[in-house]
Amino acid sequence: MEGLPEQRVICPETRSASHRASSASPKKVPDGFVSEVTPGQSRGSPCSPSTRRSPHGVVQPKTSPLPGRPLRRALLASPSRSGRNVSDGGVAIDSDAVNLGNNGGPQSKTSRSSRTSTLDYMSQIFPGRRNEINQLLNLLGRPCDLIPPLFVYGPAATGKTSIVRETMRVLGRPHAYVSCRSSHTPRLMFESMLNQLLGHVRSASNNYGSARKCERLIDFTKHLPAACAQALSRKSSHDARFRSANKNAPKAACRTSCANVDDTVYLIFDNVELSRGWTGGALLLGALFRLSELTRLSNLGLIFISSVGLDGYQASSLSREPLSMYFRDYNDSELNQILLLQRPNVDLYASFLSAVLKTFSRACRRVTELSRSLEPLYEKYCEPMLRGATTPDDNGKRQRYAMLQPYIRPALSQTLIINSSTPGPKRSKIDQSGGNLARTKSTPRRTLSSGKDVQDMAFEMPQCSKYLLLAAYIASRNAATLDAALFDAGDGARGSSRKRRKNSSSAMERKEAEAHEQQMKGPGSFPLERLLAIFRCIVVESDSAPSNGFGSFHSGPLFNGNLEEAEGDGHMTEELSADVLMQLSTLVSVNLLSKSSTNPLDGNARYRCNVDGNLIQKVARSVQFPLSKYLLHG
Amino acid sequence: MVSEEEVVEAVSFLRRRLCAAVWETGVGAAGPPLLPDVEKNCRNLEACLIGTIENGSNNSVLLLGPRGSGKTLVTERVLAHLQRTFPERVSVVRLNGLLHADDRCALKAIAEQLCLDHHLVFSKTAAFDDNLHFLTIMLKESALSHKSVVFILEEFDLFAQRPKQRLLYNLLDSMQSTLTQAAVVGLSCRLDADELLEKRVRSRFSNRKLLFLPPSSEDICQLLHDVLMLPTDGSLGDSPFISMWNENTKKVLEATMQDIIGQTVALDPSPHHIFDLALRAVCNLDQGRGLLTVADFKAANTLLHSQFKREALQNLSVLELYLLVCMKRLESKEQEVCNFTIVFEEYQHLQETHKTSDHYSREIALRAFEHLMERELIIYADFRGRNDAIEFRPVQLLIDNLELQEGLSLNPQCPVILRQWFEHMTFK
Question: Domain Origin recognition complex subunit 4 C-terminal spans what residues (chain B) (predicted)?
């Protein structure tokens, strides 16, 4: 705590100098550089910029595909996602519970020159954001300047949160930060904010309790004035301590950095677009926009950060529109600049980027996703280096590009979709599809599909489940009227073919188109009875047709003869009520099937199959089931 | 040469004035001047409240007007003035619909504020009935000591939207008694706020309404002029800089009057809107130069009137643009349901017929589709089936033809083929 202010001092000159050094030569970034940028981060998960030198002086990244912490911290990752502010949840990670910031940096003097140096320093860490930072600094003004509510918005990964928080830190303004993502109820939000303002750290000694109990907005408005006053007084005592520790501080700095009671206290609300989903969220947001009016505090600086523009809110009915500030997406050259930052071998990476970035940025412009999906490709690019080549010249670049060309497309489709597993060349097939499964669980809205190159199923499930899944797939892809034709003994198919002959060709086409359209609208839903009926049918049919190659899986240790096999499957059909329903509920709970109502006693619940074509083909193959025979449209 | 210190002081002063919280600076010179219409309302309200204080006539008034038209400013000024002219004879209870719409909360807040005013001890645990009882007693006691209670109800419409309107009924009912001496002032931006009242409440309401109409553009321009002038009465010192600033600002305002200010006023004639413009311009001020320029106003104007959809469209990746155009085409084909699978089929159809270089796999397209969803350029058409796969959930496009066209022409990356494909939407 005592040593903290000194550690936080950031001198823009040395900062930029070391930065230039790092970008001009492939030298390793000095360690001090890293620790300077991220004072509050020492307690995150251990993740060092993993680089090692090859004998030829070329630095190549280790297989760990996570971008180094400095990169993540300084450029793209907003702090809320890099584990820095677990403090909203409870335990404050910043060693100062209230973010008093430092005041030894360029911000101490209010003169114009210091403002420009802050701007320079900030745009150094956040390339391509000079305009936005300039705007923000303009609007913030001096510590005692009032500021109307500010609404910062822009697409994801454009540096909104990082820039706002870093600006606060560099300018040394007292502020509290809360994200609607981690503080997912109004109560958590209010209490976290008050904790930060009051300097209260939740710990075992206070039983992880908050400083103030704050259930509703009205409580918050009552506590806020005192909390703001305390934050300001702590700020000034912090300043005093800092000054005594640093006697050489210039006089002007002392005068202006001394917080007086009228200074603005900033409250930063992040991810406010999420609050729309809360009960009474719109009302709450409208009230927050007018917080300084409600609390009768004029020195509140309210900053809202959102990924959705103001037109996504109906806030104008509840309050005046706040001043909005837009963070646009990065363009190609800015993306290039950002991805190059903190790279050990800048020249090599630049030539790599010139080869691939154009293709990637046409599909995806989000810097977080790009940096991750480019990683495995870069390793491929570096492969010739391992064999002794040096940084390529123009000709070599062209060769390298030709070599890389076939990998670009697959890499694009492979890596952009995986976000929970860590991509890398050493990842085995099982790993990869395991990652896929994990992703599906975390975002249950997508259909489950396993990786394209994987021929087998990536995970095992009971035989009974597989048949259930197949039955569900058939039930949701076929119309219910078709069941009789498919599963009725014998003449169902003949009947339909006779019908077909009767229809004129145009009517047939129309019907086909209709069916196709139906198909596009997604899987149909079906009642439990239909699922069980189809299940029974397909189990019996595949049972009675050993010519389908059923023998192959029966040759396993459990099934040694035809008799036993018949018994096994017969067993399965008879015990429908218990085992099969058990499996069914398991399938629902892993979201392979979805159920229309969550009520377990609801008999009318309809099911839907969430499995896509690729996966179900694999399932069918694994039990040697002729799926295509049962599907009307492929 | 302008001294930097002075510029900083001036900017600070103007910022303070422009975003001044009304209750604090309402009395001081720093507060923004009033428009003529607002001034009239101010006098009416004052007369009405003076009637309560001096003659014991229990009044109720509604101040109605759009956001930012000065309702709160007027109320606070009048109250400040009354408290100065009749010290110890007015006690003010402030309620806000955003905070106290709940009856229990509101009564608690009333009791708390009255206790504070009369130096009584407020009990947090008091029940609703206790508080109500306390309120009636307090009203009587106040009347006996010739002290008036003024209730300010901000966001009056939110109080009126509560079931039974109990609080409003209780307050307005107590106005009917000769034993009390109180006034109710309601502020609302809903012009039909009095229509929301129940019959039994409306019959107790005195039907006094003060309307805050949008001012004329001349008035607004005059207001802007007044606000941006630095005071010459010596509160900021007597340096030549002040007159220099005022001269320059006058010139700049004349130059920008036609286009920028006219445009701003045409969009929203409320004083607050023009203050926002002025604030942005003042923030943009280059402190080395020290004086406002036309360019500052121009920059402020573009920042103030940002167009969310267009900005988003300008920065989309090529694939995302393709998907949007596909959706637009499907919409023009009058397809009633639209989901990712259908959009992707349309996209593939285009790729097959034109063989462009932007042919991406389904997974990438789905990711791009999700990005569009995050930007809220498209949304789910219904809230049913939250568990269903994203590919099949019906979606809706939130941009219209014109916006998309503009976006395509502004996007630097947009391929020519896509533009053509969009323009000939109905063919092929």
Answer: 223-407
Residue B304 with chain A: CB contacts under 8 Å: 323
Q: Chain A within 8 Å of B4 (Cβ-Cβ)?
A: yes
- Is residue B416 exposed (0-12), middle (13-18) or buried (19+ Cβ within 10 Å)? exposed
- What pLDDT digit, counting tens, does each position of A26-45 carry? 333 333 333 333 333 333 33
- Provide the number of structural domains found in chain B: 3
Domain coverage including residue B102: 36-211
Which residue did the predictor score with more confidence, B357 or B181?
Answer: B181
CATH number of A4-38+89-326: 3.40.50.300
A–B: how many Cβ contacts below 8 A?
181
Q: How many residues can be counted in chain B? A: 428
Provide the pLDDT for residue A77.
Answer: 37
Cβ count within 10 A of residue B54: 12
The residue from B306, B338, B363 where one domain ends is B306
The answer to whether residues B50 and B126 belong to one domain is yes
Average pLDDT for A187-208: 90
Whether residue A310 lies within 8 A of chain B, CB to CB, comes out as yes
- Does residue A141 belong to the interface with chain B, where contact is any CB pair within 8 Å? yes
* B60 neighbors B184 (Cβ within 8 angstroms): yes
Element (H, E) at B402: helix B401-410
Q: Over 90: is that where the pLDDT of B16 sits?
A: no
Q: Do A287 and B99 touch (CB under 8 A)?
A: yes
pLDDT in tens, A396-436: 777 777 777 777 777 766 655 444 333 333 333 333 333 33
In this prediction, what percent of chain A has a pLDDT beyond 70? 62
pLDDT tens digits, one per residue of A538-572 = 888 776 654 444 333 333 333 333 434 444 444 44
Shortest Cα distance, chain A CAs vs residue B215, angstroms: 17
Concatenated DSSP letters for A477-528?
HS-GGGHHHHHSSSTHHHHHHHHHHHS-HHHHHHHHHHHHHHHHT-PPEEEH
Name the domain boundary from B191, B211, B231: B211
Q: A16 or A244: whose pLDDT is higher? A: A244
**Structure tokens belonging to residue A578:** 């218990």
Residue A633 or A263, more confident: A263
DSSP, collapsed to helix, strand or coil, labels residue B19 as coil
C-alpha span between A298 and B83 (Å, rounded): 21
Mutation to test the B interface, candidates A215, A218, A417, most B Cβ within 10 Å:
A218
- pLDDT computed for residue A14 by the predictor: 36
Residues B147 and B197 reside in one and the same domain:
yes
Interface contact B308, partner A, CB < 8 A: yes
Question: pLDDT of B294-316, one tens digit each?
Answer: 888 888 888 888 777 888 888 88
Residue among B288, B318, B364 whose CB faces A112 most closely: B288
Q: How far B202 CA sits from the closest chain A CA (Å)?
A: 24
Q: Are residues B196 and B235 in the same domain?
A: no
Place of tokens 């220099």: B244
Q: What is the pLDDT of residue B349?
A: 87
Q: Within the 560-579 window of chain A, which residues sit less than 8 Å (CB to CB) from chain B?
A: none
* Domain range annotation of chain A: 4-38+89-326, 340-417, 463-491+504-630
Note whether B228 contacts A: Cβ–Cβ < 8 A. Answer: no
The Cα-based distances of A15 to A4, A100, A117 in angstroms read 18, 21, 11
